[in-house]
Amino acid sequence: MNNIKKNRLKDQAFKVWGIFCTLLGLVLLSIFIGNILIDGILRIDWEFVMNLPSRHAEESGIFTALMGSIWILLLTTVIALPIGIAAAIYLEEYSKKNKLSSILEVNISNLAGVPSIIYGLLGLEVFVRILEMGASVLAGSCTLALLILPIVIVSTREAIKAVPKSIRDASFAMGASKWQTVYHQLLPASFGGILTGIILALSRAVGETAPLIVIGALAYVPFAPESPMDQFSVLPIQIFNWITRPQHGFVENAAAAIIILLLITFVMNGIAVYFRNRWQKKFK
Amino acid sequence: MNLEDHREILNQSGLEMFQLVRKQLIKSKEAFLTHDSDLAEEVLHTENRVNGMDLKIDRDCERFIALHNPVAGDLRFVLALRKINFDLERIGDHAFGISSYIVEVDTPVDQEVIDKLEFEQMYEAALSMLDDIRAAYKDGNAKKARKVFKKDKVLNKINLNSFAVISAEVKKDPNLIDQYLLLFSVIKKIERVGDLITNIAEEIIFYLEAEVLKHSKKKGPSKPSK
Amino acid sequence: MSKKNKESIIESSIKRKYKLQAKDVKVWYGDFMAIKGVSMDIKANKVTAFIGPSGCGKSTFLRLFNRMNDYVDDFKMEGEINIDGKDINNKNINVELLRKQIGMVFQKPNPFPKSIFENVAYGLQIQGLKDKKFLQERVESSLKQVALWDEVKDDLNKSALALSGGQQQRLCIARTLAVEPSIILMDEPTSALDPISTAKIEELIYKLKDKYTIVIVTHNMQQASRISDTTAFFYLGEIIEYDKTNKIFTNPEKQQTENYITGRFG
User: Fold this and answer.
1) ipTM attached to this prediction
2) Which residue of C98, C102, C110 is in closest CB contact with A170?
3) Do chains A and B touch (3 or more CB pairs under 8 A)?
4) Which residues of A touch C100 (CB under 8 A)?
5) How far apart are alpha carbons C189 and C107 in whole angstroms?
6) φ, ψ of residue C87 in degrees (nearest 5)
7) In terms of CA atoms, which chain A residue is nearest residue C186?
8) A175-201 pLDDT, tens digit each
9) Partner residues linked to C33 by β-bridges
10) Is residue C239 a contact partner of residue C233, using CB atoms and an 8 Å limit?
11) Which of A20, A123, A182, A228 has its CB surrounded by the most CB atoms within 10 Å?
12) Counting Cβ atoms within 10 Å, is residue A99 exposed (0-12), middle (13-18) or buried (19+)?
């Protein structure tokens, strides 16, 4: 067989293998989602969303867990966003590019890979005990904020880095200060990228279970949080709790809750993708 | 084609034109002094070649400017060449004119008349000026070009003197008037040739030194060449 | 009056006569010496062109005048750069204020990813000028100066990135004109443009000469010969020759200059 034919064969072979790999992931995911849908879709109704959890499966609902998740999400955003963006701006635009800053950079990326339960332990010691926040929404948010901070910093930096140098040059040449350039040019231009990064970080946070368990989020919470200092639960914990119950009704509940959680995750990711596409178009 | 090659071709064309015209002038002198009408006919026929060369150089210069956008030395070269070409063609015309006299006017000239008017000296001087200027062009030597200004004075002197000489000699022997008139016309032509050669010298100096000597009294070098 | 006073008065009047001055300027990027002792005086309301092979220090030298090299790591400089007689590297100088008086146009058009109006008004906005009417007037007059007004007046809110390359570059010029600088520095402003856009911008430069002092770095020698009054030939970090453009292109003093402009090298 000559070279041309060999190459064509290799081409085809890889094509087939590629399709197989792609489909493998998709097929498994669809099977999983399909299973869940079969188990849980019928359980979802307005009562399910609004009910408090109870010992009886038919009367149980996700209201408290859902509210807890939303509280956590919002508060984490409020804490992580300003700190993360400010840190990223400082590192990218203000700090001198020397050995110290490169060590810093490596460490920030490392932090993103630290197992989340370690953050949980840290949060327990610092926020819950030392700062005496107790097992509150605030403590949980602070902990998760720390968790997603490296992600926010890295993706914000990437977004800012992606703004062409020519824009900076033009702004400086007109006599703008560094802050004016950041505020008027770099942030607006990298907005889409920053937003994408934040949404992706948050969609990870919404699914975190281990650190919240460690700091003391409860499995059985009969009330929705009304202030940052209240105790709370979140969807993943509620799901975990239901799965451990033997009654079949709770399996349905868990499946239904999983569907809701997946829905939230998909919607958030969808928004992130939408914004990323719009942002990329800006520079064309 | 690239600029350097094109310029070299133009340069060679210039040299060819110099050669052509020099031969024309030499032949005309020979023909006149020996009253050789065959030689004169040769000169008349060669005039076509001279004209053809003139047109060719003109056209090539235009092309050179259009295609290469020359500046500095290259630009001065092509501008000078155009004018040198024009002046050489005029010199050729005068050679043609001198030869025409031989063919159309059947008046042989006595040696005595020739000597009285210093005709041969004048023609020799003109030819040597042409040699100088050709060497100056070929070697890119402004000093050689400057030599001709002094020699031109010889031509001017002989030309001016001719009035007095002719006036005196014709009064002595009115029959010689035909010969003197003929010689006078040729002397005028040679004087014009001298002027044209000094023009060419000015152009060569302009090209080499970027100094414009046209219409100026001072002909010596005012600053050293690069 | 003491001799010293007299001398310094003469010196400062010479300084004032020249809009831009460089005195024995040396520039290093780390160990590499980019500019090896350059002095030059540039008069006001003239177009000065810098020509020379790539990498010979033309752009670096240009950027000394608005201190844009400050942003480059390892940049080090010796010597004096004066604008209107004042040393711009003096510690007391506010760099941002300096740059507001000097406009810069770059090789690749770099409009901000904002609307046409916002682009032109940017320079005024960062100075805190907010009056809408004032901004509109300035934007209009700047766009008229660059002959872009008629083409864009119907939709100033359109994104600047939707304009063609030549229009974008004219927009960038309008942007610098809006703050009414006295000096405009141009770093190969037409090298990324087609011949027609190039011609339009050259015409613009010619018109701007009356009100501004313009320094332009260019690779295109015909451009330098077309639009500049004086030309400086840079080679390997030094100025080989600096003279009236007429002289440089008909009879330069140095053989190197002649070799470069006739295309014999570089």
Assistant:
1) 0.89
2) C110
3) no
4) 174-175
5) 5
6) -75, 120
7) A173
8) 999 999 999 999 988 888 888 888 888
9) C28
10) yes
11) A123
12) exposed
In angstroms, the separation between the Cα of residue C164 and the nearest Cα of chain A is 13
Question: Hey, which chains touch B, using 3+ CB pairs under 8 Å?
Answer: C
Q: How confident is the model at residue A53 (pLDDT cuts 50, 70, 90)?
A: confident
Residue in the block written with tokens 């009064």: B171
Question: From CA C44, how far away is CA C29, in angstroms rounded?
Answer: 30
Q: Supply the pLDDT for residue C13.
A: 65
Long-range contact set of residues B77-82: C-beta below 8 Å, sequence gap at least 24:
B77/B7, B77/B10, B77/B11, B77/B207, B78/B7, B78/B10, B79/B206, B79/B207, B80/B203, B80/B204, B80/B206, B80/B207, B81/B10, B81/B11, B81/B14, B81/B57, B81/B207, B82/B57, B82/B58
φ, ψ of residue C105 in degrees (nearest 5): -120, 130
Q: Which residue has the higher pLDDT, C8 or C86?
A: C86
Contact yes or no, C with B (3+ CB pairs under 8 Å): yes
A200/B194: higher pLDDT: B194
Choose the closest CB to C112 out of A97, A170, A173. Answer: A170
Cβ atoms of residues B64 and B6 within 8 Å = yes
Q: What amino acid is encoded at B22 in this protein?
A: R
- A-chain CB neighbours of C174 within 8 Å are none
Who among B3, B4, B75 is closest to C250 (CB)?
B75
Instruction: Give the DSSP letter of residue C38.
Output: E
Residue B220's pLDDT band (boundaries 50, 70, 90)? low
The answer to whether C110 and C118 are in contact (CB under 8 A) is no
**Residue burial C61-90, b: 16+ Cβ < 10 Å; e: rest:** bbbbbbbbbeeeeebebebbbbbeeeebbe
Nearest CA in chain C to B2: C263
- Cβ distance C99 to A171 less than 8 Å, yes or no, reads no
**pLDDT one-digit tens code per residue, C175-202:** 999 999 999 999 999 999 999 999 999 9
Residue B225 reports pLDDT greater than 50: no
**Residues of A in Cβ contact (< 8 Å) with C106:** 166, 169-170, 173
Report the C-alpha gap between C167 and C177 in whole angstroms.
15
Which segments of chain B are extended strands (E)? none
Contacts of C125 in chain A (CB under 8 A): 184
What digits encode the pLDDT tens for the residues C122-173?
999 999 998 999 999 999 999 999 999 999 999 999 999 999 999 999 999 9
- Do residue B75 and residue C252 have CB atoms under 8 angstroms apart? no
Confidence of residue B15 (pLDDT cuts 50, 70, 90): very high
**Which chain C residues touch A if contact means CB-CB below 8 Å?**
66, 68, 71, 73, 96-104, 106, 108, 110-114, 122-123, 125-127, 161, 172, 175-176, 179
* pLDDT number for residue A197: 87
Cβ of C221 and B226 within 8 Å?
no
Q: Which of C51, C223, C262 to mutate against chain B (most B CBs within 10 Å)?
A: C262
Mean pLDDT of A215-239: 81
Characterize A117-139 residue by residue with b for buried, 16 or more Cβ atoms within 10 angstroms of its Cβ, and e for exposed: eebbebbbebbbeeeebbbbbbb
Distance CA C244, CA C231 (A): 6
> What is the rounded distance in angstroms from the CA atom of residue C14 to the CA atom of residue C22?
13
Cα distance from A108 to chain C (closest Cα, Å)?
A: 24
C83 close to C17: Cβ distance less than 8 angstroms? no
Q: Enumerate the residues of chain C whose CB falls inside 8 A of the CB of residue A175.
A: 96-101, 123, 126-127, 179
Q: Please report which helix (H) or strand (E) contains residue C86, including its range.
A: strand C86-87
Q: Is the predicted pLDDT of residue A284 greater than 60, yes or no?
A: no
CB-CB neighbors (< 8 A) of A164 in chain C:
110
Q: For the whole model, what pTM was predicted?
A: 0.80
